[in-house]
Design brief:
- The structure is a single chain.
- It is built from 20 helices and eight strands.
- It is of the alpha/beta class.
- An eight-stranded mixed β-sheet has the order 1-8-7-2-6-3-5-4, sandwiched between helices.
- Helix 2 (16-39) crosses helix 9 (220-266), helix 3 (45-53) runs antiparallel to helix 9 and helix 12 (338-346) packs across helix 13 (363-379).
- 25% of the residues are buried.
């Protein structure tokens, strides 16, 4: 549990500056508002109650305003009805009943004729012409009956013709004659319409000569009542607005008194309040981090790894010993370099190894470790090779700024020679350091690895170098490389506070089951 707590504290370490900044911000905000609140903190609960008691009851005022508005709407409606009746009576009493009936009859006939003429103009068909002739305005006009007989005769003649055998010109001639009859009916209708309009005008002119009768509907009283009710509604609305404004002012004073009391109670010690909140947040965050770490534990230190896996931990490297970019990638480490210590342990007298396999659960970290081992070997003036054996994931070539193809997969398949795909990357720094990129994924890679001749060529190529580092970031390639290179020592690279203990056990069990020569574990502490 102590290890889990240590990891939880390390996880929270990057957020400490932000927490301190939030504490300072809260403290400054409380300090700024504490002065005005303390100055206004003079009200007591009794004074607040007295202030609220001065508020006015607006329910009667609202009731009175609603009644005044309802009465105003009623009076206004009555006035509108009287005005409409007065206008209607004034317009109708200028005509006698006989003249009014005559005018209405003429207007009805004229409206019927206008509708029939509009239909004939929009739809010039025999049915439209019959409807025009059947109107009251044209029914008694001389010549209309003769035109209708002609139209019926033409219609019967057209229906008697065979649509298939009869020539098209006969249908066209009959249609022309029907349109001529319709034009004649429309001309008679226009003449009759002009006459009807003239008659309506004469009737209205004769009615205007008679003196209008006296107006008997009085709207003055209704208007006076409406104006009186409107003034009452305006006064009620003004009184209600004043009461509401007073009520808002009273409530504002009561709220100010309540805030002043809260400022005296809670704002007496802003430093203590802000510090308490800060402590509560930090304790809660630490508790949650410990719970999360306990539910999914990760690597804490070397002793835990050795106790859990039974394998030795070679060294623990920090992020400062792994350069990420630039020319520092080809510079040997300074001071106590853990990678040089691992290299010296591999090449010590009596246990000298010319080939080492580096694998792990993170491609970039595994490649960086392999590259540092290769640079340490090249710095001792040894011909060194670093080979990326994970086609499709060009980790080593990307680390040194080289393209990914051609490389391991092409040389293993026999498409390229091993010497062709080996690129000298240390020549500019005076180092004999070559890199073999990963190459592109191929379908025949697994078959090529199991080919004895391909394995022999691969082993002979590696034998040309004093020291070779095989990068197998994908752990599934480690057994294949081990079988092809006569069991080289394998180093497992894992990360402190990143790799889970369950994943570490799975990696170690997988490597041991594949039969590789397990050399040890290298820890990377990126948070130190």
């Amino acid at each position: 549990m102590a290890a889990r707590a240590l990891l939880a504290s390390r996880r929270l370490r990057p957020f400490v500056p932000y927490a301190v900044g939030a504490f300072v911000l809260v403290f400054a905000a409380v300090s700024l508002v504490r002065g005005p609140l303390a100055h206004r903190a003079a009200a007591t609960p009794r004074e607040t109650a007295r202030i609220l008691a001065a508020a006015r009851d607006t329910v009667p005022l609202v009731t009175a305003l609603q009644g005044a508005r309802s009465t105003l709407a009623h009076e206004d409606s009555v006035l509108r009805v009287l005005q409409y009746q007065a206008e209607a009576v004034g317009a109708l009493l200028t005509l006698t009943p006989v003249l009014q009936a005559q005018r209405d009859s003429l207007r009805t006939v004229l409206a019927q004729l206008d509708g029939a003429l509009d239909r004939a103009a929009k739809a010039p068909l025999a049915a439209s012409y019959r409807a025009l002739a059947a109107t009251r305005a044209l029914r008694a006009v001389p010549g209309v009956s003769v035109l209708m007989d002609t139209l019926d005769l033409l219609d019967r003649t057209r229906r008697a013709l065979d649509p298939v055998a009869a020539p098209q010109r006969e249908f066209a001639q009959i249609s022309q004659r029907v349109n001529a009859v319709g034009s004649a009916l429309q001309a008679l209708g226009q003449v009759r319409r002009t006459a009807l309009v003239r008659q309506v005008t004469l009737v209205e002119a004769s009615a205007g000569a008679a003196p209008p009768p006296p107006l008997t509907i009085d709207t003055l009283r209704a208007r006076a009542r409406r104006d009186s009710v409107r003034e009452a509604a305006v006064r009620a609305d003004s009184v209600l607005r004043s009461a509401r404004l007073w009520h808002a002012q009273v409530q504002q004073r009561a709220d100010s008194a309540a805030r002043a009391r809260a400022a005296r109670i809670l704002g007496s010690s802003p430093v203590a309040a802000a510090f308490s909140a800060f402590v509560v947040v930090m304790v809660l965050s630490f508790t949650l981090a410990v719970v999360a770490e306990a539910r999914a534990p990760t690597i804490a230190h070397a002793r835990e790894v050795e106790r859990l896996t039974g394998q030795p931990v070679l060294a623990t490297a920090t992020r400062f010993t792994i350069p990420r970019e630039g020319r520092a990638r080809l510079q040997p480490g300074t001071g106590v370099d853990p990678f040089r210590m691992v290299y010296l342990a591999l090449t010590a007298s009596g246990t000298r190894h010319r080939v080492v396999c580096v694998t792990g659960d993170d491609a970039s970290v595994t490649t960086a470790v392999a590259a540092r081992l290769a640079v340490s070997a090249a710095a001792d003036e040894h011909a060194t090779l670093i080979l990326d054996a994970a086609p499709g994931t060009p980790a080593a070539s990307s680390y040194f700024g080289w393209r990914e193809e051609p490389g391991f997969s092409e040389a293993l398949a026999g498409i390229r020679l091993w010497r062709e795909v080996a690129r000298p990357i240390g020549a500019g720094e005076g180092m004999a350091l070559d890199v073999v990129p990963a190459g592109v994924p191929r379908q025949d890679t697994d078959a090529s690895i199991r080919d004895p001749q391909a394995c022999a060529d691969f082993t002979a190529f590696i034998a040309e170098y004093d020291f070779a580092v095989l990068v197998a970031a994908a752990t599934s390639t480690a057994p294949v490389i081990a079988a092809a290179t006569a069991q080289p020592p394998t180093i497992l690279v894992v990360r402190v506070a990143r790799t889970r203990l369950s994943a570490l056990q799975g990696l170690v069990a997988s490597l041991l089951a594949s039969g590789v020569a397990f050399h040890g574990i290298l820890l990377i502490d990126a948070n130190s």
